[in-house]
Automatic annotation (TrEMBL):
Highest taxon, organism lineage: Bacteria
PROSITE patterns to which the protein is assigned, alphabetical: HIS_KIN (PS50109), PAS (PS50112)
Top EC category: transferase
Protein name: histidine kinase
Residue ranges crossing the lipid bilayer per the database entry: 13-32, 185-207
Keywords of this entry: Kinase, Membrane, Phosphoprotein, Transferase, Transmembrane, Transmembrane helix
GO molecular function, one term: phosphorelay sensor kinase activity
Enzyme Commission numbers on file: 2.7.13.3
SUPFAM superfamilies: ATPase domain of HSP90 chaperone/DNA topoisomerase II/histidine kinase, Homodimeric domain of signal transducing histidine kinase, PYP-like sensor domain (PAS domain)
Reaction it catalyzes: ATP + protein L-histidine = ADP + protein N-phospho-L-histidine
PANTHER family noted in UniProt: PAC DOMAIN-CONTAINING PROTEIN (PTHR43304:SF1), PHYTOCHROME-LIKE PROTEIN CPH1 (PTHR43304)
Length: 864
């Protein structure tokens, strides 16, 4: 037999080949990716240099406006407009280029927006130069100092933004250079390492294949030794096909020596012969069909056969396994096992019959224990050295114990009662059980059982059984409760009737009972009083009750009454009632039909809601007044938006013109008065704008969206850059959450609080503002705050400014309330009121705390 052909496979070599190809592809992919990364890094550096060039063009562009030659050119007659338009087109081209080049940098894009505004401002200031007409006898003249200062301020702001952009691009350039250097170094190194790694894998694969080949040879020799020494018949068959390629028989390719030992056939004589000729006595048992099934279906087949060899019956256990181009059959002599099975089967059958009888008895007893509601236990005595009972072992307990003690029978079985039920040693039950066993008697007793503070009562019967005791227990808690309830029933009824009477009088409720079968009625004492009578002041009936209905409500009352009687269903109605004294009251009625013992009666409950009706009328009147007030407020907003601000704008315009034309001729006192007028106008304008902002925060309109407070803080910082820089303030902030809110209101809230901290600074300290955040449970908030959700965002604005006394913590949130004179600190006294209104509009709260000379803290709570 060619053993190697049967037992070796090429799958392993194919797998190794595939693995090698995959490794080569992986190596090539990694090298390609490194090259592409290096190329991308180079492109990024080039891109940064292009941005540098564009910013340089911008620097040259705005620096022209700082030169005297350029300004004189604009002041000259002739082509100044053409030069100015050309200058603007150059600026637009530069900004368009920067906008395209920084499209991948949101921060630079954010800086371009104010930069565009500054350039427009610069053009507008230069446009004034273009519009100036020199006098007839002058070719040019000096620009005014005020206009120069405006242009210089604009140029200075452009310079600041340009420096920020250059600093950003410088950082990006350094980062991208480092990235390029890293990829430039790693690309060839990675390729070299991967190449060595691939070579290592190929060498390792070769060594592995060589080792496997050696193991196969060793395994082949080892397997031959096993086949020669095994007690099993091992044969290998290959199919024989006819002209139609159909299997008609099997050829014996290999046979071991056990064929001789069990069947008397020499292995060398039968190899090369067909199965049907070698084992003709097996064909009748269907062995050939089993081999065909194994070969065709490629599945393992197990079968047992009884064979008669030399008049001796033998049993063989065989299994056929598809192997290579044939079938490997292994056969074990199982004659001794089959004989032992016959003997065992007879013994097992006898044992099963006995077990069935025992199971029937146990099942019958188990059904009894399951069907009863009693807890049944059996304890075995545990005696000490002196022969006295010191404990019990739990031998049996039925499932009814679980609802009582929570124990499961399997878990407590064979355990000691001192471990499971130690309370029986304290309650005297242990002495009862010992008495039952020692004196051979039956004992009944009642004991309480306490569970989670509740008292339960049980009645137990203990009976001796051998050296133990059987206890049957049933719960009698309900019996004791019912006995106790019967004693207190009359007392409770008396108390309840008294309480019901008092409750009806306090709640202004009365009841009416109508028995439909007998057409009789009963009325509560309080209903008599509600109608202006003393109890039992008239004979109650449905017709009599109708006499109290207001004439205008009679039709509605009759309609509803007839419908209720017809459908036996009632609804809630309100009628006007005229009492005995002629007073009109409003009664709200509701009822229910009840059928008991084939008798139907209706219970109607009436409540005096006169005060409620009158309160609703007052509320409606108040709502109308509120609508009128809101309309007046809207009218005020329109006036404040247009009519009030228009005179202020004209005052500012004329003051500006007087200062430009007559400013040098005014006395110092007049200049001082003009400055005070200007400040007063600005303060009045700020006051009107703040009042408008305060009135426009409408809590009824909540167009909430997802707001990232980190972005809000960045926007506010950008808007207040000049003030923060002038104050040399330091702002520290935790990572803030995302909330649902109105974004412009959140920006106004942050702006007001940070501006407030920058305004009230201590001149002896470096201003510091710390914005802290944490999520807190509603229970950790002040008790006087009404909570609407379980968790809140807590945002604290803490500064080290002049602070304030904590007694003014609520006053500062009121409109026009100030703790300082306006000559000390500017402001309108509305900013914190706006903060409070914004917080409340978001279903939140704002609190203040401070210490004079130490600092202030403003705490905002927003729903999480």
């Amino acid at each position: 037999m060619e053993f190697k052909r049967v037992h070796t496979s090429s799958k392993k070599y194919i797998i190794l080949l595939v693995a090698a190809i995959v490794l080569l592809l992986f190596t090539a992919t990694i090298a390609y990716r490194q090259i592409m990364r290096m190329q991308k890094s180079a492109e990024m550096i080039t891109h940064t240099l292009e941005v540098y060039n564009a910013i340089g063009n911008l620097s040259y562009h705005y620096s022209q406006a700082d030169s005297e030659e350029f300004r004189e050119m604009l002041l000259k007659k002739g082509n100044s407009s053409v030069a100015f338009e050309k200058y603007k087109l150059e600026g637009k081209a530069i900004m368009d280029s920067l906008n395209i080049l920084t499209i991948d940098n949101p921060l630079q894009q954010l800086r371009l927006k104010p930069l565009k505004g500054l350039l427009k401002k610069l053009y507008s200031e230069l446009l004034v130069l273009d519009a100036i007409v020199p006098e007839k006898d002058q070719d040019s003249f000096e620009l005014s100092e005020s206009h120069k200062s405006k242009i210089n301020a604009t140029l200075n702001n452009i310079l600041i933004l340009r420096n920020k952009m250059l600093l950003e691009e410088k950082g990006l350039l350094q980062e991208r250079k480092a990235n390029y250097a890293s990829h430039k170094f790693l690309a060839p190194l990675t390729s070299l390492l991967l190449g060595f790694f691939a070579l290592f894998i190929f060498v390792l694969s070769f060594i592995k294949i060589y080792q496997n080949k050696r193991r196969i040879r060793e395994s082949e020799a080892f397997l031959r030794n096993i086949l020669a020494t095994t007690d099993n018949i091992i044969n290998y068959y290959e199919p024989i096909f006819d002209s139609d390629n159909k299997i008609i028989d099997f050829n014996i390719v290999y046979a071991n020596d056990c064929n001789r030992d069990y069947l008397g056939l020499e292995p060398n004589d039968i190899m090369g012969k067909s199965v049907s000729k070698t084992f003709p006595f097996l064909l009748a048992n269907g062995k050939l069909e089993e081999l065909l099934k194994c070969y065709n279906e490629k599945t393992k087949v197990i079968f047992d056969r009884q064979v008669t060899v030399e008049d001796k019956k033998m049993w063989f256990h065989s299994f056929a396994t598809p192997l290579g181009e044939g079938v490997l059959q292994t056969t074990r002599n199982s004659t001794i096992e089959e004989e032992a099975k016959r003997v065992q089967l007879a013994f097992k059958k006898r044992l099963e019959n006995q077990n069935l009888e025992l199971l029937d008895n146990r099942a019958f007893l188990g059904n009894i224990f399951k069907s009863i509601s009693h807890v049944v236990m059996h304890f075995k005595s545990i005696r000490g050295e002196d022969g006295k009972i010191i404990d019990f072992e739990i031998l049996f307990v039925n499932d009814r114990v679980n609802p009582v003690t929570g124990d499961f029978p399997k878990e407590i079985k064979n355990k000691k009662t001192s471990k499971v039920y130690p309370e029986i040693f304290e309650s005297g039950v242990f002495e009862y059980l010992v008495d039952v066993i020692e004196n051979d008697k039956t004992l009944e007793y009642e004991i309480p059982y306490y569970e989670n503070g509740l008292e339960r009562w049980f009645h137990s019967t203990a009976i001796k059984l051998n050296n133990g005791v059987t206890i049957t227990t049933r719960e009698i808690t309900e019996e004791k409760k019912k006995a106790h309830q019967l004693l207190k029933l009359n007392e409770d009824l008396i108390i309840q009737n008294s309480i019901l009477t008092d409750a009806e009088r306090i709640a202004e409720i009365g009841s009416f009972l109508w028995f439909m079968d007998t057409n009789t009625s009963e009325v509560s004492d309080n209903l008599y009083r509600m109608l202006g009578y003393e109890p039992n002041g008239f004979e109650p009936s449905l017709i009599k009750f109708k006499d109290f209905i207001h004439p205008e409500d009679i039709d509605l009352f009759e309609k509803n009454s007839n419908e209720s009687i017809k459908t036996l269903k009632t609804n809630e109605y309100i009628y006007r009632i005229i009492t005995k004294q002629g007073k009109v009251k409003h009664f709200k009625t509701n009822g229910k039909f009840i059928n008991e013992n084939n008798k139907t009666f209706m219970i109607v409950v009436a409540q005096d809601v006169t005060h409620t009706i009158e309160a609703e009328k007052e509320l409606l009147k108040s709502n109308l007044e509120l609508k009128y007030t809101n309309a007046e407020l809207e009218s005020f907003n329109r006036v404040a938006s247009h009519d009030l601000q228009e005179p202020l704008r004209k005052i500012q315009l004329f003051i500006s013109r007087i200062e430009d034309s007559e400013g040098k001729q005014l006395s110092s006192k007049s200049s001082e008065y003009f400055e005070k007028v200007t400040n007063a106008v600005k303060r009045m304008q700020s006051l009107i704008q703040n009042l408008l902002a305060y009135s426009r925060i409408d809590s009824s309109k909540k167009d909430f969206e997802k707001v990232d407070l980190n972005n809000v803080l960045d926007k506010v910082r950008e808007d207040l850059t000049t003030r923060i820089k002038d104050a040399e303030a330091e702002i520290l902030a935790d990572k803030l959450p995302k909330i649902k809110g109105v974004i412009f209101q959140m920006e106004q809230l942050f702006t007001n609080l940070i501006s407030n901290a920058l305004k009230f600074t201590d001149t002896n300290k470096t201003p510091k503002i710390h914005i802290k955040y944490e999520q807190v449970h509603a229970s950790k908030m002040p008790e006087d705050i009404l909570k609407s959700t379980k968790y809140y965002h807590k945002i604290s604005f803490i500064d080290n400014g002049i602070g304030f006394d904590s007694e003014h913590a609520e006053k500062i949130f009121e409109v026009f309330q100030r703790l300082h004179q306006k000559t000390e600190y500017s402001g309108t006294g509305i900013g914190l009121a706006i903060c409070k209104k914004i917080a409340e509009n978001h279903n939140g709260y704002i609190l203040a705390d401070g210490t004079a000379g130490v600092g202030a803290e403003f705490i905002i709570y927003l729903p999480a």
